[in-house]
Amino acid sequence: MKNGTAKGKSQLEEKGWERKFIIEEHRVIEYVELYESLDQQVRVEPVIPSEMEGCSECFKVECSSYRVIYTRRPRKFRTEEKKSSNQIY
């Protein structure tokens, strides 16, 4: 994915969101329910053709019918992971 950050991460990824995949809009609810059942936070964003890797011609034509799924663990889990990664064993 192309973007303007120095590390190659999007603004969402900088905030802890992980880009999962692109899906047709009519199937979004299935994946939102799935990830929420796994205690994940879910964010659904429109596809931006300029951020697509490789050929993005299809998305330019039918961009409005696709969405990008992002997930992240709830804040309490991310905080606990960060604390535990600083421990010396």
Commentary on this structure:
The chain is α+β, with helices and mostly antiparallel strands and 89 residues long. The chain has one domain. The chain is built from four helices and three strands. It has a three-stranded antiparallel beta sheet, covered by helices on one side. The longest helix is centred in the last third of the chain and has 11 residues, at 75-85. The radius of gyration is 16 Å and the shape is flat. The model is unreliable at 1-7 (pLDDT under 50).
Give the neighbour order of strands across the main sheet.
1-3-2
First and last CA, distance:
37 Å
Helix/strand-derived category reads alpha+beta
Total E-strand runs = 3
How big a fraction of the residues is strand?
A: 15-25%
The unreliable regions are 1-7
Number of helices: 4
Question: What's the layout of helices and strands?
Answer:
Elements: H1 11-14, E1 18-24, H2 28-37, E2 41-46, H3 57-62, E3 66-72, H4 75-85
Antiparallel strand pairs: 1-3, 2-3
State the main characteristics.
35% helix; 89 residues; disordered N terminus; flat; alpha+beta; three-stranded antiparallel sheet; 3 strands
